[in-house]
Design a protein that fits this description.
The structure holds 3 protein chains of 3 kinds. In chain A, 77% of the residues lie in helices and 3% in strands. Chain A is mostly helical. Chain A has a domain of 200 residues. A two-stranded antiparallel sheet of chain A has the order 1-2. In chain A, α3 runs antiparallel to α4. Chain B has one domain. Chain C is mostly helical. The chains are: A mainly alpha, B mainly alpha, C mainly alpha. Chains in contact: A-B, A-C, B-C. Chains A and B meet through α5, α6 and α7 of A and α16, α17 and α19 of B.
Chain lengths: 529, 494, 700
């Protein structure tokens, strides 16, 4: 369905590329013009994406604004785009965060401004593409394409260990996704064998009945790939390195959107494609999620580097998201999606904040600070808001997500939910401890005495996030309502297909037992009698 | 016994049009060069430009004849879709090589001579005939035409000991391998009584008892050695790094792509058409060869610091990937090989073109990885091009390398070689490391010493842009070429 | 008019927005606007509350419940929560004193905080935010909104404890408060989840009080116990009970008005409020009630014991608060919910007064010490003395509050505390009563110790600071006087029957608390009977059986009620009252002896029982114990996870794989010798392998 009769998604997805072309024409010495142009494009991009929100039809679970054209006809690969309640908000988050990232790089990025902005715009296109693609190959192309600009962002504009971090990021994620590619191919040929149709269209592949034994392997490949991206324990070690080394905007985008690709991938691809295997993996995923929640929080607690602390907190937060998604009920999944948005906003804000202080002091070590709130009260306020959101105080967005996830998880597996809830304690511990050591206590370092408070640009950067923290905290209905139809359809569809597989399994087991017992049955039954 | 009859075959120009055009161009270059009035120490692009015109003409003729499906010259030449596609690949290879050479000749003035372009074009003719040969004899002649030209080309930097060494090694080992190949042909002839590829196939259909005769199998083994050597298949790959490193950079690129394409073409023609009945037998050993070739290539490439050597190992690895399609053995696998060869031509020649771009006036070259430090930002166009080629080789979308691997591994999975596909993707991940390292050096590191790129000649700029466009075209909109590759395989003369 | 209830929380939040966003500018222009905004906001809330309160009084008792749903909050699937408020006697009573006392303390803060430069507006922003959260907590008609207030007040407490954040101790105290509360909230939220899912299993997907309570009887007894205990974990943190009370004494690092408002009068009682609100739920679980009562009693005596020897004036009051909260829980635990709430009310008056009085003292001390440039501790009672004459209003009001807390008949604390003790005894908990009575004696002792050390004898302030001590400004003393009045007479709201009153508070709260254990059981029995009748249509025989069971339960409940009423005579009540008054007087007498008459006695006692003295002085070493048992191990474990698991194992594996491949690469690379001969050999070897392979194929 395309209610606008206009390829709005393509426009939104590829508009940044247009920006890249314009940027290419600008002389690299004109740094402010470059920055301004990039900002203009990302802001326009955000407004371009608003019709998606405005014309979005809450009532339907199906794909909207659909565009569907053949791409590689002989392989059945199509250019199929669409948005539903699951992807809508993540798309909006992406277009919302990118201008903020450009803005926060204004003075942070001093070398190779042109290339930097080009990378940002390319990244935006890749991320949006991955979110709206409904063809597995199209998705895969965007999925991998995301790696390149991010790799460059970390590697060129990153910290001292940037090369290691960038390469690790790239290889780690690529290593996971190649197996997904194989799994996709296998599914594709299997589908052809069964239906006689060559297609990579997920809406078609959803209908496929994959033999259970095969399903486990295919599902595993998808899971590993997405789990690396999320990242789930124990595949998370690329994340702290990448975050710490990346420039501020890189971290914001990485935390805000890129990690969501993993969780989104689970929801869009892995889970609905393989309901039976997903169901069987549920305990494993839930366990790993809970370990991630607690593990991330505990490790965050002992980090001396602010950015690393926030990075590990991401591991913990994403653990919640995964737990919610795998609760497989309305509260869990909606909470999971909501938490994805929250994480983008609160962790994004935290990275911005760490970046701002780093820009002033060129250190991120917690011990180098103390008492900053005295000289930077505005900064302290924003930092506090982000902290509260991160520790999920009611009234902030974080609470809504966390509570829904806990409700969902508690309904699905109470024991895990209990452990997950304990993560909230550790969350408060590490965030407040950091806040206390950085912002409070005596201002005893002379370098810190002359720190300037935030300037107007920085306030503009943070303000939308801070406002959203509360808007999303008090009025989550605005956001959740748009997901309802899609999520409930997702669950219904998932459950009915799971039932189908379960019955199949029952049947085949029954047949096996019958086959085994058939021959000696006469004799043994006689003995029993 | 058949009467030996001397028949003058009808002159079918169309069947060998691209080859003919190239041969004539080669001669023209040679002639023009004789009359050229040249000041000492100055180079001109005249030879190169003539070659470009010839190659482009050949390319068009190859494209025009792509719908042909006929056996010409008593079955000596098979002018079918397959040979046309190979001709297209070879023309692309030749074109990009010539365009690079025009720039490269200021570092290596010897290249600015009629002989160079002449040899290059003749080598290309040989390659094309390898793709079109319907007879083992012609195949061998074509192979030697190609090889001998390249032996010479490899040693063209006559002042450089490494170049000489490279040529000599290549010659010695090449001759060695050719011997195996020829002996293999002989055994095949002994077993089947014919040199004609199509007829061998027909003979084996008629006489299944011959299929597992020692004579035939011995021939198959020896031919595998001969082709394997040219393709740089494990364990016949050892020459590759040394030769690639020493040869003039543009020649290296030419070898890495053209020779590989031609060797694969011939290999496929012989094995699928003539020896199709033995597919079950050679699949297992080729499976192993594919696995070892890509693994050895990739793993050893990891520890290289010289970019030419690194690309040499990478080319071994790519031979391994191509063999995956070969193992798959289906029409799709074969089409995937063709597609990959073309993609690889664009990618690899692009990469070597960038290295050639950096060649110094005094004849030296920047071939150590560290020489590339910081160049990404200093020369953004060049950096971007190199990055595109590296990502393509690594198989990252939307570059053509991704699509190429996609088709190859698809075909493997379709044929049930899931494990080979798995090893294939694991290898791509390993390869990521060294391809990324090029971008790491270019973009993430500061230059240690000042590397100054001489002003690029328009020819090479055109060449690199073409290569990059080719890479992106095949990556983003592969449909047309993929259909063409499939068509080529379908119209192969059986 | 009831539908304007949402304005009550709105006024303070408007104050927050004005002062929070523009406060810095406003403060630069005119400091007074800041406190005007804040005080008016709270004042309006108070006025509106009063209006609604009296409107509600106009209704017959059984109609005193009004729910107002403002907007949809968190909803998804079967989860529906609303931002919705409810007006009933309990919420209105709480709201009355919260906004009232809150308003007084806002006014008091003007004088106390006026000298704060550059962050005056922040103080009032936080205070208003606190009022907003607290009002939400009280007025919420569901558990989730209550939880919003619950955490919100915790947050404000954190912010206000750390208000003078440049002192490390303050910052740490704030963090400690927040984290301890988080531990409690962990329990609370699990309680909510359990309640929600358990009721949901019976088709009641709701957290709304008016839907939850009529259905709690559906819960199995063990589940009800579990839910109650989990919710109580939340209370132990918020209302500072054993084992999570540790944050409250440290919280005294905050400005004194904060201590008065948050850490004495309002926030810390929210746990009591929550249990009182959930009385129907708790009544289902005698075990949980027992736990509440036991923890309450233990906390009461434990905290009192620490209070005996503290020298910091606010620390004494802090432990006293912990101890008094213990009483409240004791009351709740024995089923005297109304008595517990009554004590909340009186405690709010006298404890707020005590804190504000101590604030006035500290204010004076600060001023005096500042004048003579002394760095002596302004809160240490050993530096005080003789303030009776310097700060007369403070003294008098303080004394009234002390009499109230000590349980001297006629003052408010007497009525409420005695009601609790009497109910404890009446419900058959003799040991708990004894503990409570002893703690009452201790209370009287340490409070009078405080009064004597502060206001009596000679002034011990160093460097002649004594001359500079004087009474606080009007904005501070007027609230003191108002509170003193309330502390003195507030008890008459709930004079028990035994003393000729009619237990007005209890009657007032009846619509909420009416469902005591007895009535609830009746109701459950009736429900069972009703359900049984329903079933009867389907299965006759079984229904009769069930109906019989239902009636039996109802009958048992009636018997219990009778039992409670008849067993204890009026005489016993007088006797107990007499005993507790006597104990209080003994406590006062001992304090008088030790701190007025024989002032060398305390030192002697400390010398003769050094271990006990140090134990009490160091608060039973509980903080140290937690550090050793909880914090250190977790920290160490985290370090291990980071350095051991993350860096060594996980990353080690990843990098290890890379290294192995690299090493392998280096090894193979040496096969590349550069000699043509060796290359030829490899070709030959390869050929041999191929030939062998094909020949084997040929054989097979």
């Amino acid at each position: 369905m395309n209610q606008l009769h206009f390829p709005i998604i393509s426009l939104v997805t590829f508009f940044p590329i247009f920006g890249v072309l314009i940027l290419l024409m600008i002389d690299k010495e004109n740094e402010d013009v470059l920055r301004g142009t990039a900002l203009a494009f990302t802001v326009i991009e955000f407004f371009l994406s608003l019709p998606l929100l405005i014309y979005f039809n809450d009532g339907t679970a199906g794909m909207q604004f659909v565009e569907h054209f053949p791409w590689i006809r002989s392989m059945g690969i199509t250019y199929h785009l669409g948005i539903d309640g699951i992807s809508l908000w993540i798309v909006m988050l992406t277009t919302f965060l990118t201008p903020i990232c450009v803005l926060c790089s204004w003075s942070y990025i001093q070398k190779h401004v042109k290339e930097y902005m080009i990378c940002m715009l390319l990244l935006e296109t890749a991320m949006l593409g991955a979110l709206v693609a409904l063809d597995l190959i199209l998705f895969y192309v965007f999925w991998e394409l995301m790696l390149i600009p991010m790799y460059l962002l970390i590697g060129v504009w990153g910290g001292p260990q940037r090369v290691y971090a960038a390469v690790k990021f790239f290889i780690y994620t690529a290593a996971g996704s190649v197996f997904m590619l194989l799994s996709i191919l296998f599914l594709y040929y299997y589908n052809h064998k069964v239906t006689g149709v060559y297609t990579f269209d997920i809406l078609e592949l959803y209908k496929l009945n994959v033999p259970i034994s095969v399903q486990f392997w295919l599902c595993l490949a998808f899971f590993v790939s997405f789990a690396i991206k999320v990242p789930m324990f124990p595949l998370h070690t690329w994340l702290p390195d990448a975050h710490v080394q990346a420039p501020t905007a890189g971290s914001v985008i990485l935390a805000g959107v890129l990690l969501k690709m993993g969780t989104y991938g689970f929801l869009r691809f892995a889970m609905p494609l393989f309901p039976y295997a997903t169901h069987q993996y549920m305990p494993v995923i839930a366990t790993l999620s809970v370990i991630g929640i607690i593990y991330g929080a505990l490790v965050a607690m002992v980090q001396p580097d602010m950015k690393k602390l926030v990075a590990y907190s991401s591991v913990s937060h994403l653990g919640y998201v995964m737990l919610g998604l795998f609760a497989l009920n309305m509260q869990g999944i909606e909470g999971g999606i909501y938490q994805m948005l929250n994480h983008g906003i609160s962790t994004g804000a935290l990275f911005l904040i760490v970046g701002m202080i780093y820009e002033r002091r060129h250190t991120r070590m917690i011990k180098d600070f103390g008492g900053i709130a005295k000289v930077m009260p505005v900064f302290a306020t924003f930092f506090m808001i982000a902290t509260l959101s991160s520790v999920a105080v009611p009234g902030t967005n974080g609470f809504v997500g966390e509570f829904m996830i806990l409700v969902g998880a508690f309904r699905a597996y109470p024991v895990f939910a209990v452990f997950a809830a304990s993560g909230a304690i550790f969350g408060a511990v590490y965030m407040l401890w950091m806040y206390q050591r950085v912002m409070f206590c005596p201002l005893d370092k002379p370098e810190n005495e002359k720190l300037k408070d935030l300037n107007v640009r920085e306030i503009i950067t943070l303000l939308p996030l801070a406002v959203l923290v509360f808007v999303m905290g008090f009025f989550p209905g605005m956001f959740l309502r748009k997901m309802d139809a899609s999520v409930s359809h997702f669950i219904k569809d998932f459950n009915s297909r799971y039932e189908m597989y379960a019955q199949q399994r029952q049947q085949s087991l029954g047949e096996k037992i019958a086959a085994v017992t058939a021959t000696p049955a006469a004799g043994s039954s006689a003995v029993v009698e | 016994m058949e009467m030996l009859e001397f028949v003058v075959p009808a002159l079918n120009v169309k069947a060998i049009l691209p080859q003919l055009i190239l041969s004539l161009t080669a001669l023209t270059v040679l002639l023009v060069d004789v009359f050229a009035d040249r000041e000492a120490g100055k180079t001109s692009a005249a030879n190169g430009l003539i070659a470009v015109v010839g190659v482009v003409a050949a390319l068009f003729s190859a494209l025009l004849t792509i719908g042909m499906r006929e056996s010409a010259y008593s079955g000596m030449v098979l002018a079918d879709g397959f040979s046309s596609f190979i001709s297209v690949i070879i023309c692309v290879v030749a074109l990009l090589t010539v365009l690079s050479s025009i720039n490269y000749q200021r570092s290596c003035p010897a290249l600015d001579s009629g002989e160079y372009y002449c040899l290059l074009l003749f080598a290309a003719v040989g390659m094309m005939f390898m793709g079109a040969a319907g007879n083992l004899l012609l195949l061998f002649l074509a192979l030697e035409t190609m090889s001998i030209s390249i032996y010479v080309l490899a040693g063209f930097r006559s002042t450089d000991a490494k170049s000489i060494e490279s040529a000599l090694k290549y010659f010695l080992l090449g001759a060695f391998a050719s011997g195996f190949l020829l002996f293999g042909f002989a055994l095949l002839y002994g077993a089947t009584g014919t040199m004609d590829v199509v007829k061998i196939g027909a003979f084996l259909t008629a006489h299944p008892e011959v299929i597992h005769s020692r004579l035939l199998l011995g021939g198959v083994a020896l031919m595998t050695v001969g082709f394997g050597f040219k393709m740089a298949m494990f364990p016949f790959h050892m020459w590759t790094p040394d030769v690639y490193e020493g040869a003039p950079t543009v020649v290296t690129g030419f070898m890495a792509t053209g020779v590989k394409a031609a060797a694969f073409a011939a290999f496929m023609r012989v094995f699928f058409i003539a020896l199709g009945h033995l597919q079950v037998d050679w699949t297992a050993i080729m499976w192993l060869a594919a696995f070892l070739t890509m693994t050895i290539g990739n793993v050893v490439a990891l520890s290289q610091t010289n970019i030419k050597r690194m690309l040499a190992y990478s080319s071994i690895a790519h031979a391994g990937y191509l063999l995956v399609g070969f193992v798959a053995g289906t029409k799709m696998g074969q089409a995937a090989i063709l597609f990959y060869l073309l993609s690889y031509a664009f990618t690899n020649l692009g990469a070597f073109g960038v290295i050639a771009l950096l060649a110094k006036k005094d004849g030296g070259e920047y071939t150590e990885l560290k020489d590339f430090a910081g160049l990404g930002f200093k020369y953004p166009g060049m950096g971007l091009a190199m990055a595109v080629f590296m990502f393509s080789m690594a198989g990252i979308p939307p570059a053509s390398g991704f699509m190429g691997k996609f088709y190859l591994f698809s075909s493997a999975i379709k044929s049930g070689f899931v494990w080979l596909a798995i090893f294939g993707v694991i290898n791509s991940v390993i390869s990521l490391y060294y391809y990324l390292r090029v971008t790491v050096v270019m973009y993430f590191q500061e230059a240690e010493e000042e590397v100054v790129m001489p002003k690029a000649s328009p020819a090479i700029v055109v060449g690199l842009v073409l290569a990059a466009l080719g890479v992106l075209q095949m990556g983003i909109l592969p449909s047309y070429l993929w259909d063409l590759a499939q068509f080529s395989i379908k119209t192969m003369i059986m | 008019m009831f539908d304007k209830v949402w304005l009550i929380p709105i006024f303070p939040i408007i104050g927050v927005l004005i002062n929070g966003l523009l406060g810095r500018r406003i403060e630069e222009i005119n400091k007074d606007i800041v406190h005007w905004v804040a005080c008016v906001a709270v004042g309006l809330s108070f006025v509106l509350t009063c209006v609604l309160f009296f409107q509600m009084l106009g209704l017959p008792p059984d109609q005193r419940l009004y729910e107002f749903t403002w907007f949809d909050w968190i909803s998804g699937g079967v989860l529906h929560t609303y931002v919705a408020y409810q007006i009933d006697p309990l919420s209105m009573m709480m709201c009355m004193f919260v906004t009232g006392v809150g308003f007084l303390i806002h006014v008091y803060s003007i004088g106390y905080m006026y000298h704060e430069e550059g962050r005056y507006y922040r103080f009032f922003t936080y205070l208003n935010l606190f009022m907003f959260s607290m009002i939400n907590l009280i007025l919420a008609n569901n558990y989730l909104l209550l939880f919003l207030g619950w955490e919100g007040v915790g947050l404000c407490s954190y912010l206000l404890i750390g208000f003078w954040f440049s002192e490390e101790a303050n910052a740490i105290a704030g963090k400690k408060a927040f984290i301890t509360n988080r531990v409690g909230d962990f329990g609370f939220i699990l309680g909510l989840l359990l309640l929600y899912t358990q009721l949901g299993a019976h088709g009641v997907w709701s957290l709304q009080f008016s839907e939850v309570f009529p259905h709690v009887h559906l819960l199995s007894p063990s589940m009800a116990t579990a839910i109650c205990l989990l919710l109580f974990v939340g209370c132990t943190a918020k209302s500072a009970q054993i084992p999570l009370y540790v944050w409250l004494p440290d919280a005294m690092a905050g400005p004194t008005p904060v201590s008065a408002l948050i850490h004495a009068a309002t926030m810390v009682t929210s746990g009591v409020y929550m249990i009182a609100r959930s009385n129907i739920l708790y009544s289902l679980s005698p075990f949980a009630m027992g736990v509440v009562a036991t923890f309450g009693a233990l906390t009461a005596i434990f905290a009192a014991s620490i209070g005996l020897v503290q020298n910091d004036i606010k620390k004494v009051l802090a432990y006293s608060t912990v101890s008094q909260l213990g009483y409240m829980f004791l009351g709740l635990g024995v089923g005297a919910f109304a008595a517990g709430m009554f004590h909340v009310l009186t405690h709010a008056f006298f404890k707020a007064l005590l804190f504000l009085g101590s604030g006035s003292v500290i204010h004076a001390m600060h001023h005096g010490l500042h004048k003579v440039h002394s760095h002596a501790d302004a809160q240490d009672m050993r530096n005080m003395g003789g303030l009776k004459d310097k700060t007369p209003i403070t003294y008098v009001t303080f004394l009234i509050a002390t009499l109230a807390i000590a349980g001297i008949p006629g003052f408010s604390g007497f009525f409420s505390k005695d009601e609790i003790l009497w109910q404890t005894y009446a419900h058959g908990h003799f040991v708990l009563w004894l503990i409570g009575a002893v703690a009452a004696g201790m209370t009287a002792f340490y409070m009078f110790r405080l009064v004597f050390m502060t206001f009596f004898n000679e002034c011990r302030a160093p460097d002649g600071a004594a001359e500079h001590l004087h009474e606080s400004p009007k904005s501070m003393t007027v609230p003191l006087m108002i509170l003193a009045f309330l502390a003195a007479v507030g008890g008459y709201l709930g004079v028990p029957k035994a003393l000729g009153g009619n237990n007005r508070i209890e009657h007032f709260l009846e619509p909420v608390m009416g469902l005591g254990p007895e009535k609830l059981l009746k109701k459950a029995g009736a429900a069972m009977a009703g359900g049984a009748h329903h079933l009867a249509e389907a299965a006759h025989g079984a229904a009769e059986h069930a109906a019989a069971a239902g009636h039996a339960v109802a009958g048992h409940a009636a018997a219990m009620a009778e039992h409670a009423g008849a067993h204890h005579s009026l005489f016993a009540e007088y006797l107990l009252m007499g005993i507790s008054v006597a104990i209080a007087l003994i406590g006062i007498f001992i304090a008088y002896t030790m701190y007025i008459r024989k002032r060398e006695l305390p030192a002697k006692l400390a010398e003769s029982f050094p271990f006990l003295y140090r134990l009490l002085l160091n608060k039973w070493y509980v903080d140290e114990l937690y550090e050793l048992v909880v914090i250190k191990p977790i920290h160490g474990f985290s370090q291990l996870l980071w350095k051991g698991v993350d860096v060594a194992i996980v990353d080690g594996t990843v990098n290890g794989v890379a290294r192995v491949v690299g090493w392998f690469s280096g090894v193979i690379r040496y096969l590349q010798s550069g000699y043509v001969q060796s290359y030829a050999v490899s070709v030959v070897l390869g050929t041999v392998v191929l030939i062998i392979y094909y020949f084997i194929k040929a054989l097979s």
